[in-house]
Amino acid sequence: MTTTKPGVRPVVPHFSSGPCAKRPGWSLQALTDAVLGRSHRSKVGKAKLKRAIDLTREILEVPADYRIGIVPASDTGAVELAMWSLLGARPVTMLAWESFGEGWITDVEKQLKLKDVTVLKVPYGELPDLTKVDSDTDVVFTWNGTTSGVRVPNADWIKADRKGLTICDATSAAFAQGLDFPKLDVVTFSWQKALGGEGAHGMLILSPRAVERLETYKPAWPMPKIFRITKGGKVNEGVFAGETLNTPSMLCVEDYLDTLTWAKSVGGLKALRGRADANAKAVGDWVARTPWIENLSSNPAAASNTSVCLKLIDPAVAKLPAEAQLAFVKQLEALLDKEGVAYDIANHRDAPPSLRIWCGCTVETRDVEALLPWLDWAFAEAKASLAKAA
Q: What Å distances lie between residue 12 and 25, 286, 366, CA to CA?
C-alpha cells in the first residue's frame, strides 16, 4: 500500500451524498435567465414551474396519467405530505434498512399514531425479505437507502393488482435507477439529491390510484397548510401545473431547469443511469482488488449505484470500538479534504462507521477513478497514525 501521494487529482472533488455535485460544466452563468424579483404566480413564473414539471416527466419517463407537483421542504416534505394525506385508510407496512426509512416509521407510529402497522426492519447493509410484504396494505419504503447504500433491485415484489398504495421515497434513486412507475403510487425526490440542484424543494408524483384515495378518503387528523393538495374534495390540479403551495425560490427553479436541460442533452434517462452505473462500477472494481474495504451491502444485486457505502474490514480497524472506527473514518475524510481531492465522504451520522461516495449522474467517472488511489493513500496514512498511537 503506497504512502506516496497519487499524481492525479479529481477535477471536481465533490462526492457528497447531498447536496450532490453540480452537473458537469455548471457555473453561475447558467442562472442568468432566472425570474428574480417577480411573483412565482406571474405568467412567466408559472411558466418556469410548469416547464420544470414537464421536463421532469419527459426525462424520468413518468406515465402521462401520473401527476407531478413541486412541494415544500425537499424530499422530506414530499414524503410527509404523502403520508399525512393518504395513510390511515388501510393497514400499513413500513420497510426500513437505514435512517430515512426509520424516520418514516417514527412519523407513522408516534405522530400519526396509526394502530395497524407492520414494520419490516433490518440492519444497515441488508434488505428486508420483500416476499413478506403484503401489497394489499399501504407500503412505505425507500427505493435506495441513501445512508446504507442498499436499494431494492426491482419492483417485482409489488403486486400489479394490489389494493394498497405504494409510497416510495426515491430521492437518491431518481435519474439513476429504474423506477417501475406502474408499481408505484407515490414517488418523491429532491432537487439537491437527484441532479445536484439546490435545496428546499421536493417533487411529488402521484398515480391515478393515489389521486382516487385523496378524493375518497379524509384523514382524521388536522392537515397543515403546506400538505393540503385537495380543494372541495377534489385534488387541487393547480399544484400539478406550477401553482406551488408556498413560495419557491425561482433561482433554485432555474438551476433545476438548467440541470434537466443538461440531462436531456446527454441522452435522457438511459444515459443518466449509464453514467451512475459506470461510476459505481469504478468503485466496485477497486473494492474487489482492495483488501481493507468492502461494500456495506451484503447483497451485490442490492448495492446502490449512487450512494455507495463502504465498510472498513482491515483487522486493525475493524476490531476497534465503533467510536474509534468513526474517528478513523473522520481522519480519512480530513486527509482527503485537506488535499482537496474529496469532500464530505464520511458516513451519515446515523450509519455505521463507513465511507460514502456519491456516484450519481452528475459525477464524472474520470473523477471517481482519480479519487480511488487517494483513498488507498489516506488509509495508509491513517493506519500508520493508528499504529504509532498504539
A: 10, 19, 10
Find the CATH number of the domain harbouring 317.
3.90.1150.10
Q: Which domain holds residue 110?
A: 31-264
Q: Distance of CA 320 to CAs 94, 203, 313, 329, Å?
A: 33, 41, 11, 12
- Exposure on the CB side of residue 356, measured as CA atoms within 13 A: 26
Task: Please calculate the CA angle 208-67-72 and round it to the nearest 5 degrees.
Answer: 125
Crossing angle for the helix pair 268-288 and 365-389, to the nearest 10 degrees = 30
Flag whether 21 is in a domain.
no
Cite the beta strand spans of the chain per DSSP E. Answer: 67-72, 92-96, 117-121, 138-142, 144-145, 150-151, 166-169, 186-190, 201-206, 230-231, 234-235, 293-295, 307-312, 355-358
Does residue 314 register a pLDDT over 60?
yes
> Can you tell me which residue has the cell 414517488?
187
Task: Name the pTM for this structure.
Answer: 0.97
Specify if 10 maps to a domain.
Answer: no
Q: For 150-183, write each residue's pLDDT tens digit.
A: 999 999 999 999 999 999 999 999 999 999 999 9
